[in-house]
Amino acid sequence: MSYRDAIHDALQGNGADYCEIRIEETASTRLVYRGKGLEDAVQSSGRGGNVRACVRGGWGFVSFNNLEGLKARVKQAVAQARAVGGEGTKLAEVEPNVRTVKPRIVNDPRVVPLAEKKRRMDHYNGLLLSTPQVQSINSVYAEGSRHVFFGNSDGAYMDQEFIHVTCRLAAQAKRDNDIQEAGFSIGSLGDFALLDGLDDEVKAVGQRAVDLLSARPLKGGERTVILNPVLAGVFIHEAFGHLSEGDNVAEDKKLQEIMVMGRKFGGKHLNVTDGAAMPGLRGSFAFDDEGTPATKTPLIREGVLVGRLHSRETAAMLGEKPTGNARAVGYNFPPIVRMTNTVIENDKAKFEDLIADVKEGVYVRGWYGGMTQHEMFTFSSGEAHMVRNGKIAEMVRPVMLSGNLFTTLENIDAIGNDIGMNEGGGCGKSGQSPLPVSLGSPHIRIRKCLISGA
To answer: Which class does domain 3-212 fall in?
Structure first.
Protein backbone atom coordinates (compact mmCIF):
# COMPACT_ATOMS: atom_id res chain seq x y z
CA MET A 1 0.00 0.00 0.00
CA SER A 2 1.29 3.47 -0.89
CA TYR A 3 1.82 6.13 1.76
CA ARG A 4 -1.05 8.10 0.27
CA ASP A 5 -3.46 5.19 0.57
CA ALA A 6 -2.25 4.37 4.09
CA ILE A 7 -2.72 7.97 5.24
CA HIS A 8 -6.15 8.23 3.60
CA ASP A 9 -7.38 4.99 5.18
CA ALA A 10 -6.06 5.87 8.65
CA LEU A 11 -7.80 9.27 8.64
CA GLN A 12 -11.25 7.88 7.94
CA GLY A 13 -13.80 8.24 10.75
CA ASN A 14 -11.24 9.66 13.17
CA GLY A 15 -13.77 11.66 15.24
CA ALA A 16 -11.57 14.77 15.50
CA ASP A 17 -12.36 18.29 14.34
CA TYR A 18 -9.12 18.10 12.41
CA CYS A 19 -6.45 15.43 11.93
CA GLU A 20 -3.21 15.11 9.94
CA ILE A 21 -0.54 12.48 9.32
CA ARG A 22 3.05 13.19 8.31
CA ILE A 23 5.48 10.43 7.30
CA GLU A 24 9.16 11.15 6.57
CA GLU A 25 12.16 9.34 5.11
CA THR A 26 15.52 10.91 5.94
CA ALA A 27 19.20 10.42 5.19
CA SER A 28 22.22 12.46 6.31
CA THR A 29 26.01 12.71 6.16
CA ARG A 30 28.17 14.67 8.59
CA LEU A 31 31.94 15.23 8.77
CA VAL A 32 33.23 17.02 11.89
CA TYR A 33 36.77 18.40 12.17
CA ARG A 34 38.25 19.59 15.46
CA GLY A 35 41.79 20.23 16.56
CA LYS A 36 43.97 19.21 13.65
CA GLY A 37 41.90 16.63 11.83
CA LEU A 38 38.72 14.65 11.31
CA GLU A 39 36.98 13.81 14.56
CA ASP A 40 33.75 12.21 13.39
CA ALA A 41 32.17 10.85 10.19
CA VAL A 42 28.54 9.75 10.34
CA GLN A 43 26.03 8.59 7.76
CA SER A 44 22.51 7.74 8.85
CA SER A 45 19.01 7.14 7.54
CA GLY A 46 15.63 6.84 9.12
CA ARG A 47 11.88 6.69 8.71
CA GLY A 48 9.09 7.76 10.99
CA GLY A 49 5.94 9.76 11.25
CA ASN A 50 3.38 11.47 13.42
CA VAL A 51 -0.30 12.07 13.89
CA ARG A 52 -1.65 15.41 15.09
CA ALA A 53 -5.31 15.82 15.99
CA CYS A 54 -7.46 18.66 17.29
CA VAL A 55 -10.69 18.32 19.30
CA ARG A 56 -12.47 21.40 20.73
CA GLY A 57 -9.24 23.41 20.48
CA GLY A 58 -7.10 20.80 22.26
CA TRP A 59 -4.22 19.14 20.42
CA GLY A 60 -2.93 15.59 20.58
CA PHE A 61 0.37 14.53 19.06
CA VAL A 62 1.87 11.05 18.60
CA SER A 63 5.17 10.29 16.85
CA PHE A 64 6.42 6.84 15.85
CA ASN A 65 9.08 4.91 13.94
CA ASN A 66 7.02 1.82 13.18
CA LEU A 67 4.46 2.59 10.47
CA GLU A 68 2.29 -0.40 11.33
CA GLY A 69 -0.93 0.26 13.20
CA LEU A 70 -1.39 3.77 11.79
CA LYS A 71 -5.11 3.73 12.59
CA ALA A 72 -4.31 3.06 16.25
CA ARG A 73 -1.91 6.04 16.28
CA VAL A 74 -4.72 8.24 15.03
CA LYS A 75 -7.02 7.03 17.81
CA GLN A 76 -4.31 7.74 20.38
CA ALA A 77 -3.77 11.31 19.14
CA VAL A 78 -7.53 11.96 19.04
CA ALA A 79 -7.90 10.64 22.60
CA GLN A 80 -5.16 13.01 23.78
CA ALA A 81 -6.81 15.95 22.04
CA ARG A 82 -10.22 15.11 23.52
CA ALA A 83 -8.70 14.97 27.01
CA VAL A 84 -7.36 18.54 26.82
CA GLY A 85 -9.93 20.19 24.55
CA GLY A 86 -12.54 22.49 25.98
CA GLU A 87 -13.38 25.54 23.91
CA GLY A 88 -13.60 25.16 20.17
CA THR A 89 -11.38 24.40 17.22
CA LYS A 90 -10.50 27.47 15.19
CA LEU A 91 -8.35 26.96 12.11
CA ALA A 92 -8.08 29.33 9.17
CA GLU A 93 -9.48 27.86 5.97
CA VAL A 94 -6.96 26.50 3.45
CA GLU A 95 -7.97 24.92 0.16
CA PRO A 96 -6.90 21.25 0.24
CA ASN A 97 -4.22 20.71 -2.40
CA VAL A 98 -2.99 17.41 -3.80
CA ARG A 99 0.54 17.79 -5.15
CA THR A 100 3.86 16.04 -5.72
CA VAL A 101 6.80 18.44 -5.48
CA LYS A 102 10.16 17.32 -6.84
CA PRO A 103 13.31 18.38 -4.98
CA ARG A 104 15.50 21.19 -6.25
CA ILE A 105 18.72 19.50 -7.40
CA VAL A 106 21.57 21.37 -9.08
CA ASN A 107 24.55 19.14 -8.24
CA ASP A 108 23.18 16.23 -6.23
CA PRO A 109 25.33 15.66 -3.11
CA ARG A 110 23.92 12.16 -2.70
CA VAL A 111 25.81 10.88 -5.76
CA VAL A 112 29.16 12.28 -4.58
CA PRO A 113 31.22 9.57 -2.82
CA LEU A 114 31.98 10.09 0.86
CA ALA A 115 35.69 9.90 0.03
CA GLU A 116 35.36 12.93 -2.27
CA LYS A 117 33.52 14.93 0.39
CA LYS A 118 36.27 14.09 2.87
CA ARG A 119 38.95 15.01 0.32
CA ARG A 120 37.42 18.45 -0.19
CA MET A 121 37.17 19.12 3.54
CA ASP A 122 40.67 17.74 4.20
CA HIS A 123 42.02 20.12 1.57
CA TYR A 124 40.31 23.21 2.96
CA ASN A 125 41.17 22.41 6.55
CA GLY A 126 44.76 21.77 5.47
CA LEU A 127 44.86 25.30 4.04
CA LEU A 128 43.68 26.67 7.37
CA LEU A 129 46.29 24.71 9.32
CA SER A 130 49.06 25.78 6.93
CA THR A 131 48.61 29.40 8.02
CA PRO A 132 51.33 30.33 10.56
CA GLN A 133 49.93 30.69 14.10
CA VAL A 134 46.70 28.81 13.25
CA GLN A 135 46.66 26.11 15.91
CA SER A 136 43.28 24.44 15.46
CA ILE A 137 40.23 24.06 13.26
CA ASN A 138 36.52 23.67 13.96
CA SER A 139 34.77 22.72 10.73
CA VAL A 140 31.67 20.79 9.69
CA TYR A 141 30.27 19.45 6.42
CA ALA A 142 26.64 18.33 6.59
CA GLU A 143 24.01 17.23 4.12
CA GLY A 144 20.54 15.88 4.60
CA SER A 145 17.53 14.78 2.60
CA ARG A 146 13.97 14.85 3.94
CA HIS A 147 11.14 13.23 1.98
CA VAL A 148 7.76 14.20 3.45
CA PHE A 149 4.38 12.58 2.81
CA PHE A 150 1.51 14.58 4.33
CA GLY A 151 -2.25 14.18 4.38
CA ASN A 152 -5.05 15.70 6.44
CA SER A 153 -8.73 15.27 7.11
CA ASP A 154 -9.55 18.21 4.82
CA GLY A 155 -8.46 16.09 1.85
CA ALA A 156 -4.99 17.55 1.26
CA TYR A 157 -2.06 15.35 0.28
CA MET A 158 1.53 16.45 -0.43
CA ASP A 159 4.66 14.55 -1.42
CA GLN A 160 7.70 16.85 -1.04
CA GLU A 161 11.44 16.24 -0.89
CA PHE A 162 14.24 18.56 0.26
CA ILE A 163 18.04 18.22 0.00
CA HIS A 164 20.25 20.56 2.02
CA VAL A 165 24.01 21.05 2.05
CA THR A 166 25.88 23.18 4.62
CA CYS A 167 29.52 23.77 5.45
CA ARG A 168 31.33 25.76 8.13
CA LEU A 169 35.08 26.28 8.06
CA ALA A 170 36.75 27.98 11.03
CA ALA A 171 40.29 28.51 12.29
CA GLN A 172 41.67 29.36 15.72
CA ALA A 173 44.93 31.29 15.99
CA LYS A 174 46.91 31.49 19.21
CA ARG A 175 49.59 33.77 20.61
CA ASP A 176 50.56 33.15 24.22
CA ASN A 177 47.20 32.91 26.05
CA ASP A 178 45.25 34.83 23.42
CA ILE A 179 43.05 32.77 21.09
CA GLN A 180 41.10 34.29 18.20
CA GLU A 181 38.74 32.60 15.73
CA ALA A 182 37.55 33.41 12.24
CA GLY A 183 35.27 31.43 9.98
CA PHE A 184 32.40 31.40 7.51
CA SER A 185 29.31 29.30 6.83
CA ILE A 186 27.68 28.49 3.51
CA GLY A 187 24.70 26.42 2.46
CA SER A 188 22.54 25.45 -0.49
CA LEU A 189 19.33 23.76 -1.48
CA GLY A 190 20.44 20.73 -3.48
CA ASP A 191 23.79 22.00 -4.78
CA PHE A 192 27.06 20.30 -3.81
CA ALA A 193 28.93 22.83 -5.96
CA LEU A 194 28.94 25.24 -3.04
CA LEU A 195 32.17 23.43 -2.05
CA ASP A 196 33.87 24.37 -5.32
CA GLY A 197 36.65 26.95 -5.53
CA LEU A 198 36.88 28.09 -1.91
CA ASP A 199 40.70 28.25 -1.66
CA ASP A 200 41.01 32.04 -1.58
CA GLU A 201 38.17 32.46 0.91
CA VAL A 202 39.58 29.73 3.17
CA LYS A 203 43.08 31.24 3.12
CA ALA A 204 41.56 34.63 4.00
CA VAL A 205 39.84 33.07 7.01
CA GLY A 206 43.09 31.66 8.33
CA GLN A 207 44.84 34.99 7.89
CA ARG A 208 41.96 36.87 9.51
CA ALA A 209 42.21 34.69 12.63
CA VAL A 210 45.91 35.55 12.83
CA ASP A 211 45.32 39.26 12.21
CA LEU A 212 42.84 39.38 15.06
CA LEU A 213 45.68 38.57 17.45
CA SER A 214 47.16 41.99 16.70
CA ALA A 215 43.86 43.89 16.56
CA ARG A 216 43.08 46.20 19.45
CA PRO A 217 39.82 46.07 21.41
CA LEU A 218 37.44 48.93 20.79
CA LYS A 219 36.10 51.17 23.53
CA GLY A 220 32.34 50.86 23.89
CA GLY A 221 29.73 53.54 23.34
CA GLU A 222 27.30 54.82 20.72
CA ARG A 223 28.73 54.87 17.22
CA THR A 224 27.69 54.87 13.60
CA VAL A 225 27.82 51.23 12.50
CA ILE A 226 27.63 49.72 9.01
CA LEU A 227 26.51 46.07 8.97
CA ASN A 228 27.39 43.73 6.12
CA PRO A 229 24.58 41.63 4.56
CA VAL A 230 25.29 38.57 6.75
CA LEU A 231 25.11 40.41 10.06
CA ALA A 232 22.21 42.61 8.94
CA GLY A 233 20.31 39.48 7.91
CA VAL A 234 20.97 37.87 11.29
CA PHE A 235 19.84 41.07 13.00
CA ILE A 236 16.48 41.23 11.20
CA HIS A 237 15.89 37.48 11.63
CA GLU A 238 16.69 37.30 15.34
CA ALA A 239 15.66 40.71 16.61
CA PHE A 240 12.56 41.31 14.48
CA GLY A 241 11.57 38.06 12.76
CA HIS A 242 10.79 36.13 15.94
CA LEU A 243 8.56 38.98 17.12
CA SER A 244 6.60 38.54 13.88
CA GLU A 245 5.76 34.88 14.56
CA GLY A 246 2.04 34.59 15.26
CA ASP A 247 2.31 32.10 18.12
CA ASN A 248 4.69 34.38 20.00
CA VAL A 249 2.29 37.30 19.56
CA ALA A 250 -0.84 35.30 20.46
CA GLU A 251 0.73 34.03 23.69
CA ASP A 252 2.29 37.30 24.91
CA LYS A 253 0.19 40.33 25.85
CA LYS A 254 3.25 42.60 25.84
CA LEU A 255 4.02 41.61 22.26
CA GLN A 256 0.40 42.28 21.32
CA GLU A 257 0.86 45.82 22.61
CA ILE A 258 4.17 46.23 20.78
CA MET A 259 3.41 44.54 17.45
CA VAL A 260 0.33 46.58 16.50
CA MET A 261 -0.49 46.67 12.80
CA GLY A 262 0.17 50.10 11.36
CA ARG A 263 2.83 50.99 13.92
CA LYS A 264 5.76 52.90 12.47
CA PHE A 265 9.08 51.15 13.03
CA GLY A 266 11.44 52.91 10.63
CA GLY A 267 11.90 55.14 7.63
CA LYS A 268 10.31 54.73 4.20
CA HIS A 269 13.47 52.97 2.99
CA LEU A 270 12.86 50.04 5.39
CA ASN A 271 11.04 47.05 3.86
CA VAL A 272 11.14 43.57 5.43
CA THR A 273 9.74 40.36 3.91
CA ASP A 274 9.56 36.68 4.84
CA GLY A 275 8.42 33.88 2.59
CA ALA A 276 9.08 30.37 1.33
CA ALA A 277 7.90 31.43 -2.13
CA MET A 278 11.35 32.90 -2.83
CA PRO A 279 12.72 30.13 -5.08
CA GLY A 280 15.97 28.24 -4.62
CA LEU A 281 16.75 29.21 -1.01
CA ARG A 282 17.15 26.91 2.00
CA GLY A 283 13.96 28.22 3.56
CA SER A 284 11.98 27.66 0.36
CA PHE A 285 9.23 25.08 -0.18
CA ALA A 286 5.90 24.67 -1.93
CA PHE A 287 3.80 23.74 1.12
CA ASP A 288 4.43 24.04 4.84
CA ASP A 289 4.02 21.17 7.30
CA GLU A 290 0.26 21.82 7.56
CA GLY A 291 -0.21 21.72 3.78
CA THR A 292 -0.60 25.49 3.43
CA PRO A 293 0.87 26.91 0.19
CA ALA A 294 4.04 28.98 0.52
CA THR A 295 3.66 32.74 0.38
CA LYS A 296 5.81 35.86 0.31
CA THR A 297 4.66 37.90 3.31
CA PRO A 298 5.38 41.63 3.68
CA LEU A 299 6.18 42.37 7.34
CA ILE A 300 7.29 46.01 7.13
CA ARG A 301 6.46 48.30 4.23
CA GLU A 302 7.98 51.78 4.10
CA GLY A 303 8.73 51.56 7.81
CA VAL A 304 5.22 50.46 8.85
CA LEU A 305 4.23 47.06 10.32
CA VAL A 306 1.85 45.43 7.83
CA GLY A 307 2.02 41.68 8.44
CA ARG A 308 3.13 38.72 10.53
CA LEU A 309 3.72 34.98 10.13
CA HIS A 310 1.10 32.34 10.81
CA SER A 311 0.01 28.76 11.09
CA ARG A 312 -3.64 27.99 10.47
CA GLU A 313 -4.35 28.17 14.20
CA THR A 314 -2.57 31.46 14.92
CA ALA A 315 -4.13 33.05 11.83
CA ALA A 316 -7.58 32.18 13.20
CA MET A 317 -6.66 33.39 16.70
CA LEU A 318 -5.55 36.81 15.43
CA GLY A 319 -8.10 37.15 12.64
CA GLU A 320 -5.51 37.15 9.86
CA LYS A 321 -4.64 35.01 6.86
CA PRO A 322 -2.42 31.88 7.06
CA THR A 323 1.00 32.50 5.52
CA GLY A 324 2.45 28.98 5.19
CA ASN A 325 4.87 29.31 8.12
CA ALA A 326 3.94 26.19 10.13
CA ARG A 327 7.15 24.15 10.13
CA ALA A 328 8.67 21.20 11.98
CA VAL A 329 12.33 20.22 12.06
CA GLY A 330 11.39 16.54 11.86
CA TYR A 331 8.62 13.99 12.29
CA ASN A 332 9.09 13.81 16.08
CA PHE A 333 7.92 17.43 16.44
CA PRO A 334 4.61 19.17 15.71
CA PRO A 335 4.74 22.17 13.36
CA ILE A 336 5.01 25.61 14.97
CA VAL A 337 5.24 29.08 13.47
CA ARG A 338 8.73 29.58 12.02
CA MET A 339 10.46 31.94 9.61
CA THR A 340 11.53 30.78 6.14
CA ASN A 341 13.56 33.29 4.09
CA THR A 342 13.69 36.62 5.94
CA VAL A 343 15.15 39.70 4.25
CA ILE A 344 15.59 43.42 4.43
CA GLU A 345 14.91 44.47 0.85
CA ASN A 346 17.22 46.54 -1.33
CA ASP A 347 17.14 50.31 -1.36
CA LYS A 348 19.28 52.60 -3.53
CA ALA A 349 22.56 53.32 -1.75
CA LYS A 350 25.90 51.97 -2.92
CA PHE A 351 28.28 50.71 -0.24
CA GLU A 352 30.56 53.69 -0.92
CA ASP A 353 27.62 55.99 -0.19
CA LEU A 354 27.06 54.36 3.22
CA ILE A 355 30.58 55.11 4.43
CA ALA A 356 31.31 58.30 2.48
CA ASP A 357 30.12 60.78 5.14
CA VAL A 358 31.14 58.72 8.19
CA LYS A 359 33.90 60.62 9.97
CA GLU A 360 34.45 57.82 12.49
CA GLY A 361 32.45 54.62 12.73
CA VAL A 362 32.69 50.84 12.67
CA TYR A 363 32.17 48.36 9.83
CA VAL A 364 31.06 44.96 11.17
CA ARG A 365 30.90 41.66 9.30
CA GLY A 366 29.68 38.15 10.07
CA TRP A 367 28.46 36.99 13.45
CA TYR A 368 29.14 34.56 16.29
CA GLY A 369 25.91 34.59 18.24
CA GLY A 370 23.36 36.65 20.07
CA MET A 371 20.19 36.74 22.09
CA THR A 372 16.91 38.64 22.18
CA GLN A 373 14.35 39.31 24.89
CA HIS A 374 11.25 40.97 23.52
CA GLU A 375 12.54 44.17 21.90
CA MET A 376 16.03 44.04 23.45
CA PHE A 377 18.87 42.39 21.52
CA THR A 378 22.60 41.63 21.75
CA PHE A 379 24.72 40.29 18.86
CA SER A 380 28.42 39.58 18.46
CA SER A 381 30.08 40.40 15.15
CA GLY A 382 32.58 38.06 13.53
CA GLU A 383 34.97 40.88 12.67
CA ALA A 384 35.14 44.66 12.77
CA HIS A 385 37.05 47.49 11.09
CA MET A 386 37.19 51.17 11.86
CA VAL A 387 35.75 53.60 9.34
CA ARG A 388 37.66 56.87 9.18
CA ASN A 389 36.79 59.81 6.94
CA GLY A 390 34.75 57.67 4.59
CA LYS A 391 37.30 54.85 4.25
CA ILE A 392 37.61 51.35 5.73
CA ALA A 393 40.59 51.49 8.11
CA GLU A 394 42.30 49.15 10.58
CA MET A 395 40.87 45.92 11.96
CA VAL A 396 39.71 45.94 15.57
CA ARG A 397 38.52 43.11 17.80
CA PRO A 398 34.95 41.89 17.16
CA VAL A 399 32.30 43.93 18.96
CA MET A 400 28.89 43.34 20.48
CA LEU A 401 25.91 45.34 19.24
CA SER A 402 23.02 45.81 21.64
CA GLY A 403 19.96 47.96 22.18
CA ASN A 404 16.24 48.32 21.70
CA LEU A 405 15.05 46.86 18.39
CA PHE A 406 12.57 49.60 17.60
CA THR A 407 14.95 52.43 18.42
CA THR A 408 17.55 50.70 16.27
CA LEU A 409 15.14 50.28 13.35
CA GLU A 410 14.40 54.01 13.55
CA ASN A 411 18.14 54.68 13.52
CA ILE A 412 18.70 52.79 10.24
CA ASP A 413 19.23 55.86 8.09
CA ALA A 414 20.54 54.20 4.90
CA ILE A 415 20.11 50.85 3.16
CA GLY A 416 22.26 49.55 0.32
CA ASN A 417 21.43 48.06 -3.07
CA ASP A 418 23.58 44.93 -2.70
CA ILE A 419 21.41 42.31 -1.01
CA GLY A 420 23.23 39.12 -0.04
CA MET A 421 21.83 35.89 1.40
CA ASN A 422 23.22 33.84 4.28
CA GLU A 423 22.30 30.18 3.77
CA GLY A 424 24.77 28.51 6.08
CA GLY A 425 22.81 28.39 9.32
CA GLY A 426 19.69 27.08 10.96
CA CYS A 427 17.09 28.51 13.31
CA GLY A 428 16.19 27.25 16.77
CA LYS A 429 12.90 27.56 18.63
CA SER A 430 11.09 25.47 21.24
CA GLY A 431 13.70 22.73 21.08
CA GLN A 432 13.48 22.39 17.29
CA SER A 433 16.89 23.05 15.76
CA PRO A 434 18.46 23.50 13.26
CA LEU A 435 15.56 24.37 10.96
CA PRO A 436 16.72 25.34 7.44
CA VAL A 437 16.26 29.07 6.86
CA SER A 438 17.82 31.79 4.77
CA LEU A 439 18.30 35.38 5.83
CA GLY A 440 19.61 38.36 4.01
CA SER A 441 19.96 42.07 3.60
CA PRO A 442 21.95 44.70 1.80
CA HIS A 443 24.54 46.66 3.77
CA ILE A 444 22.74 48.90 6.27
CA ARG A 445 23.88 51.91 8.30
CA ILE A 446 22.73 52.49 11.86
CA ARG A 447 23.33 55.76 13.68
CA LYS A 448 23.80 55.81 17.47
CA CYS A 449 24.23 52.04 17.81
CA LEU A 450 25.51 50.88 21.19
CA ILE A 451 28.60 48.71 20.90
CA SER A 452 30.97 47.11 23.38
CA GLY A 453 33.96 44.78 23.23
CA ALA A 454 32.93 41.21 22.46
So the answer is: alpha beta
